[in-house]
Automatic annotation (TrEMBL):
Xref: Pfam families: PIG-L
Species of the source: Pseudomonas hormoni
SUPFAM superfamilies: LmbE-like (SSF102588)
Name of the protein in question: PIG-L family deacetylase
UniProt cross-references to InterPro entries, sorted A to Z: GlcNAc_PI_deacetylase-related, LmbE-like_dom_sf
Gene3D superfamilies hit by this protein: LmbE-like (3.40.50.10320)
Length: 252
């Protein structure tokens, strides 16, 4: 799947608010998705992906007392190449702090949340897919339920992490689920490429949506671009609007 720029597409033409299939996606309850007693493992390619993909689901699972493990593959320090304001050195410190604040805003139990940081380099994950698979497998166990980005999401890092996570989950006997991010911002003409037969809706209440939105705004470095050097916001308004919907989509 070719890489997609969210800022290049007209919001009115994007899949998330134009595809009729979204109305017909069946609902799945949290207990069916993650059986009682199972550990949920969320694998985020970059800091913030854990909130964007499943900030609502994380709240639901936490409320039900599921053990949670978060694996952050990169530190996100290469999100602003050429920037003086957001240099790699500054971002390597700042972005993990943003993630801590975001998870706190979600209301997750920080004292018991297991959080692994991979330290891989942004925009180079496809070149290290084997090492990535081995790294992820090290932290999985049979019976886990894994969530990560989709293998055809339109972002090379998202896709590499999905492929590696799928292989790692299969190798240890863990369940595997994907959650699209960039794909919802494809032009409507591409909606036929989405595997609608695998899609399920996780319903969110008003408070869960509000906390998720509040958590997203903890990523200050991603909310403003730098037009002078050609950097658009990594979290543009259209993506923030998508995250205010009362559900999240999982490909099971």
């Amino acid at each position: 799947m070719k890489s997609v720029s969210i800022s290049d597409s007209s919001p009115s033409a994007q899949v998330w608010n134009s595809a009729l299939q979204l109305d017909n996606v069946p609902v799945i309850n949290t207990q069916t998705l993650v059986p009682a007693g199972a550990r949920a493992v969320v694998i985020a390619p970059h800091p913030g992906d854990e909130v964007v993909t499943c900030g609502g689901l994380l709240q639901l699972l936490s409320a039900l007392g599921h053990p949670l493990q978060l694996i952050s593959i990169t530190d996100g320090s290469a999100s602003h190449p050429g920037s003086q304001q957001w240099s790699e050195k500054r971002l390597s410190v700042f972005r993990p702090q943003e993630s801590v604040e975001a998870l706190r805003r979600l209301g997750l139990p920080m004292h018991s949340l297991k959080w692994i940081r991979g330290g891989f380099t942004d925009n180079a994950l496809a070149e290290r897919e084997l090492q990535l698979t081995q790294f992820i497998a090290r932290y999985l166990r049979p019976g886990d339920v894994v969530f990560t980005t989709w293998c055809e999401d339109g972002n090379v890092d998202h896709e590499a992490v999905a492929r590696a996570s799928a292989k790692a989950a299969a190798s240890v006997g863990a369940a595997f689920n994907e959650m699209p991010v960039w794909a919802w911002h494809w032009p409507l003409r591409d909606s036929g490429l989405i595997p609608w037969h695998r899609a399920r809706k996780v319903r969110l209440d008003t408070w869960s949506v509000a906390r998720k939105s509040h958590a997203t705004h903890a990523y200050a470095s991603q909310l403003d671009g730098e037009p002078a050097i050609g950097i658009a916001p990594l979290l543009p308004p259209v993506l923030l609007e998508w995250m205010r919907l009362p559900y999240e989509i999982v490909f099971v």
